[in-house]
Amino acid sequence: MNTDRIRDNLLAVRGRIAEAARRAGRDPAATTLVAVTKKRSVEMIRPLLEAGSLDLGENYPQELWEKVDALVDAPGPIRWHLIGHLQGNKARRTFPLVRTIHAVDSLKLLTTLDELAAEVADPPSVCLQVNTSAEEAKHGWRDAAVLDDAEAIAACSRIHVVGLMTMAGYGTDGETARPSFVRLRALRDDLVRRIGRPLPHLSMGMSNDYEAAVEEGATLVRVGSALFEGVEP
Ligand SMILES: *Cc1c(COP(=O)(O)O)cnc(C)c1O
Q1: What is the domain-level CATH number for residue 193?
Q2: Model pTM?
Q3: Model confidence pLDDT, tens digit, residues 20-32
């Protein structure tokens, strides 16, 4: 396995995030790179950690639990992000392990997490997933439907809702994905007005489109394949 290549990929992605931020007049430090490590071995993850990339994103709770165990000896405190769908019955075990749950995709799940948050010392923060691309297969509130639930969202005061998350349509690039990102930011601004609480985070942008996402205000980009390009497992 080519450790140097992973480090070079990481440096390139970081550089592109910084350039995109500068183009948009944003502070490059305002966007956190979440390295998406789903289906990657622990050996492939270690070079990222050694290069200081300590925010890791996993899609599947079970896989996340296993990797948390396998990486207890990591060279720094890993900040785990669950970026995939969470079933309510896996929440209790996942809660203490993660900093942020990105894809809370229904009011039902949010309510479950809110109840759980009342029972634990330091609950993770969450983003609400919004389907901005109108693709049937995607989870989440369907676009402006998230505004209709504003009151119920505001009532969930024990869980720390920090922002919105979206996935652009399949097969998009930065330019075709951009309207989704612009839309997510607008929905966030509307929701802030309705609930009267700040929602500082926008989790948007993946390998194909993260530069556009940064230009449009992403504070969390979820990048996987671009970090592992050219690397044999
Ligand atoms: C896999 C995944 C990513 C990363 O996608 P890449 O195209 O590999 O960068 C980001 N977000 C979610 C929700 C994912 O499932």
Answers
A1: 3.20.20.10
A2: 0.97
A3: 999 999 999 999 9
